[in-house]
Design a protein that fits this description.
Elements: H1 7-29, H2 36-43, H3 47-53, H4 57-71, H5 81-96, H6 99-110, H7 115-142, H8 151-168, H9 177-189
Helix pairs in contact: 1-2, 1-4, 1-6, 4-6, 4-7, 5-9, 8-9
């Protein structure tokens, strides 16, 4: 006796095919040239199947990036803030150089004019910033970081140079780039001797 097809399994296979097709197309032709029609054709599904789950191509690619984020390791916490930041920012630098980085670049550009992309990018960045601030706050409590440091600003100072160089492609990032950035940053963020946080 033959088994009946499992609709939930077929749906999940279609969903995975759509995510993979959208990611591949975005890397190959760029975000702007990626269309729902092209995604559907590559995934072997109808357009309505895509629209049943997502309102736009940006939403499809945002789910792909959310999965990338969930698969990545949590923000490290070894007790050494500088080492943890170096590990995390180096991992981010590596991710930005991959196909997922190309997708993320497309979404960041689209976010300037696409509300779905803007909301999704903001949500992903807020989670990343929250993780970083939690680690920085712990470092403040342990005396590794100046007590008066504005943590939102610290995040911007640490990650801003990496995003600037990557997004604008002003120069190839040299080996040890984030180590040099963190050396400069920590000279200003380390607590003063004598107990004066300023």
């Amino acid at each position: 006796m033959s088994r009946r097809p499992d609709p939930s399994r077929r749906s999940e296979q279609s969903r995975q095919a759509i995510l993979a097709a959208a990611a591949d197309l975005c890397v190959e032709v760029g975000f702007a040239a990626t269309t729902i029609e092209a995604i559907a054709a590559r995934a072997g599904v109808g357009k309505q199947t895509i629209y049943r789950w997502w309102p736009s191509k940006a939403a499809v690619l945002l789910e792909q990036m959310q999965r990338v984020r969930e698969a990545s390791a949590d923000f490290p916490d070894t007790g050494d803030l500088r080492a943890d930041l170096l590990a995390q920012t180096t991992a981010l630098e590596g991710l930005l150089a991959t196909n997922d980085g190309a997708i993320w670049r497309g979404l960041l550009i689209a976010a300037q004019s696409d509300d779905v992309a803007a909301d999704g990018v903001r949500a992903l960045l807020e989670r990343a910033v929250t993780d970083a601030k939690q680690r920085l706050a712990k470092a403040q409590a342990s005396g590794e970081l100046r007590a008066d440091a504005d943590l939102d600003m610290v995040v911007e100072i640490i990650y801003g140079p990496l995003y600037h160089a990557w997004l604008l492609r002003v120069r190839p990032l040299p080996p040890g780039y984030m180590k040099e950035i963190l050396t400069l940053v920590f000279d200003g963020l380390k607590p003063a001797t004598g107990g004066d946080a300023r």
